[in-house]
Design a protein that fits this description.
With about 350 residues, the chain is α+β, with helices and mostly antiparallel strands. The protein contains 11 helices and 13 strands. Helix 2 runs parallel beside helix 3 and helix 4 packs across helix 5.
């Protein structure tokens, strides 16, 4: 059996271009005003939001990456769940998807069939459909989706509304990037790898739906720019500071030890370079804890800012999941993010 992760240098969202380089390019692009474009790329949100003029909005995103699992069907599921997550992170419901595929022309086509089947099954689980796509012959396998979803103009989420006094809830464990890196060296227990793969395959559909009726002030999903990177973007866009209690962050068992042993992807170092000067760490924190918080996640959980009473209700609804309250929102201080 071909092990897909052995065919690539980086896996999943760890393959993202360094955030620092990306923002340098994006900030130089010409901008065209459109009153119907309610959310673009300026605020580092997860998807664009376009006003349809009838009280509804269209939410659109695109995401693809190299294999993050050896099994083709599992890889397809994870890549699809990751792409669909951007719509959930904006408070929307995905409806129509298109495949994006790079595949070696010399490779067994059954592998491609399994990848696409995994993606289709996950899209159908989300209540959406796959309606075509685009393929390129390439030396490195890559797969993902463009996703179009819909929401209400008066209730979609962005990363810019966190308010002083809010708390942050995170819905999935952190550490899949480190686990994936260690797995390439066969240094991960099978049970831990299975748990990480299961987490990445899990849609954020329930996490989004569990917030219905609650006042979500800001939201994002935790992917390639790490927990710290995405909360930094939320704090900056909201004009606040966020204080993370590292002991409250749900982690995969053993991931801190893997970080201590040096199983870190290039993405950890890219994320550290991007925001290290914007994060204040409690001096007593160990380096490996910080590395885990900089770890790029693939198909990570939602991070939701809401009042403490609403967060308590939300956690009741998600009591059989790893969801936890991990941070508090305060007035803007010297650093956007503090870790204690």
């Amino acid at each position: 059996m071909v092990k897909l992760t052995r065919m690539v240098k980086t896996s999943g969202c760890a393959a993202k271009l360094a955030a620092k380089d990306l923002h340098e390019v994006l900030s130089s692009l010409p901008k065209k005003a459109d009153e119907k474009l309610l959310v673009g790329f300026e605020g580092s949100d997860d998807a664009l939001v376009y006003d349809l003029g009838n009280g509804d909005v269209m939410i659109s995103t695109v995401d693809f990456f190299p294999p993050v699992a050896d099994d083709p069907y599992t890889f397809g599921q994870i890549a699809a769940a990751n792409a669909l997550s951007d719509v959930y992170a904006m408070g929307g419901d995905p409806k129509v998807c298109m495949n994006l595929v790079c595949f070696p022309s010399c490779q067994d086509l059954d592998i491609l069939k399994q990848i696409l089947t995994g993606g289709c099954d996950k899209v159908h689980e989300a209540g959406a459909v796959v309606a075509g796509g685009h393929t390129i012959a390439d030396s490195v396998i890559k797969y993902g989706l463009s996703v179009t979803g819909f929401g209400k103009k008066n209730s979609f989420w962005t990363n810019a509304g966190a308010k002083e006094g809010d708390v942050i809830v995170l819905t999935k464990k952190i550490g899949v990037g480190i686990i994936n890196t260690a797995a390439k060296a066969d240094e991960v227990p099978e049970a831990l790898l299975s748990e990480a793969l299961s987490s990445m395959k899990t849609l954020n559909k329930r996490a989004k739906e569990a917030a219905e009726g609650l006042d979500v002030r800001a939201a994002t999903d935790i992917t390639g720019f790490s927990l710290l990177g995405h909360l930094y973007e939320m704090a900056s866009s909201s004009g606040v500071s966020i204080t993370i209690d590292h002991s409250s962050v749900p982690l995969f068992d053993g991931v801190v030890d893997l970080a201590r042993f040096g199983f870190l992807s290039e993405g950890v170092y890219n994320n550290r370079e991007y925001i290290e000067e914007s994060v204040h760490f409690e001096p007593s924190l160990k380096r490996e804890i910080c590395d885990v918080l900089f770890d790029p996640q693939t198909s990570g959980g939602l991070a939701l800012a809401m009042s403490e009473p609403d967060a308590a209700e939300y956690l009741k609804r998600m009591s059989d999941t790893p969801a936890a309250m991990i941070a508090r929102v305060g007035k803007k201080r010297d650093y956007p993010v503090y870790v204690i």
